[in-house]
């Protein structure tokens, strides 16, 4: 029998809690749910007003993975959804994970959380810029950190503050809080900075995705600023070999990174990091910290 759990007055069926999702470490579905309950306050601060896309991996990272934007079949009536603009579907809606019951219901589906750079009330009006720094082997997150330092300085020259988190995979994400700005304008600005980074660091950085150019360099992916694109949310678990997290990091950690292992954080690392540092990305949710595009 599937156990029913009450979460803030909502009945949620939590299934297969002993199922091992990450075989290398024996990390179970129950531990996945415990992780999300532990980081709920910090995670919800970053996703609660945004339509969420799910990368589902119900049988673990080695099983079938599928990306969905539509509310999954069986979504409870109490789960909030919001209309989203899609050229192919005028009536499209997506889930908004705005409270602990919805978070635990979604976590029970075994998902990564991905969000756009805009909130549900203002589609295609971004309140942050993102750069996804993706290393082409043999480059690693070490090279991503070098690119991130350059981008941080360039953004600062325009009066913008950048904050870093691991992707939870191989690379690094930079996020910049900004005053609400049309996504098209943000995309153009981000592309310009990626091009400038390539010009300044030609042996390290690329602004184009061309696979033939990628080995040993860092692709500065600016495309996730487009209104239709999404980025892995802070604190989401990733469907990787280990239960890695897209973890906020300090600039001291970025500057001190010497090996790829220096910026790998697992689910069990997050509670002590939050207890020590709080939410390092809290400025992203503070309108007073938002900068203005030049």
From TrEMBL:
Pfam families (UniProt xref): LigD_Prim-Pol (PF21686)
InterPro entries linked: LigD_pol_dom, MtLigD_Pol-like, NHEJ_LigD
Keyword RNA-binding among UniProt keywords: no
UniProtKB keywords: Ligase
Keyword DNA repair attributed: no
GO molecular function: ligase activity
Protein name: DNA ligase-like protein
